[in-house]
Fold:
Amino acid sequence: MKTSPSSRRGRASREADRLVELAEGLAQSGSRAEDHFWESRLDGEIDALLQNNDEGSLNAALDRLADRESRAYEELADAIEGRVEHVLVRSSDGQRDVLLFAAPVLAWSRMPLPTRVLGTKITEEIRQALKAHVFADDTDVVVADYFFSPDQLPESFGETAEFRTSLMSHLSDGRLPVDTGSLNETAQFLADQRYILGVVAGPAGKALFKWQEGMVNREEVHAAWNQAVEKSLGELLPACGFEPMLPRAYYVACRDADRAARPFSISASVAFLCTTLSITPNNLVATIAGCYNRQLEEYRIGFQVADEEEVIHGIVWPLLGAEDEMSDVIEEVETVLKDSGLVRIEVLRQRMPMEYCDDCGAPLYPNTEGEMVHAELPETGEPSGAHLH
Ligand SMILES: [Zn+2]
Structure:
């Protein structure tokens, strides 16, 4: 039977109402016993919506709770992400936990950063490194045969759950071939994230990660992982600086990477400018500005050579999670700039506009005069910031 758009809207809103009600119940719960009650009902609703590809109701409920700035928003977001990245499956060996994971890599290069098929050899090297150093003994691991940029990660909750299902169906091969034709184009930045994605499966309720077994901690796992993948990543990222991050469950790993990418992009930019222009960091001047639409959207940092007028490079420092103009973000940016060797840092106290270049769409960056200008790297002909025109 065909339904009219208005009746579909009616249904979506009823389902969103139900999610909001359950998430608020969970947020106000006063005991573990009550938590379980709300959680199991919330999980059931979310599973049904994911099954029906009803992304609209999930997002409508999140939007509604975000407006109220309630703890229920966090509860609902956690519950949805949890159901998307994790599932319990029945197998001949009993119940198994199946978890989507990400192993992010921070990278920078003067050349465009690659996104590419890993190839069977590197996929297998990475899978073996994950099994040996990251995941518990009794687990199976499958890796997607692609090195993803942030633009190419699955976009919606439904697509992410579907990707987890595709990976699951290749657990016995250990490798999921990826249809590269369906992937988005990648915006190019001097520094960016790349992702290795996969699924780990193990007996339900047992350890999935090595650190859960109590023999090694996360730092030791991270150090062993770095060492194990250095050679394979070196092949994937020729002429690039890179830092592998700790592989973790998908959503938390992506958040780790977003957070770590901000200081990484500053140190990469300073290294890039100093090499390209044959200068030392104390020759650079950085100007930090808060850029606003209705509210603070992001910070932008313009780089100039001391006593020169042009902004030669710029970086966007996005706000993450609950950060706003009351957060100590500027102090954090200043600390990272100082740690990178800069001694001259200007902070503009006025609200700057979120301006972009009309020609190429590149963000404009602040200069020491308090203007938003186009970043242009002199003479070398190399791209400054994200775009070249
Ligand atoms: Zn432009």
In short: The chain has three domains: 5-84, 92-251, 279-373. Residues 357, 359-360, 362, 374, 389 surround zinc ion (CB under 6 Å). Residues 250-277 form the longest helix (28 residues).
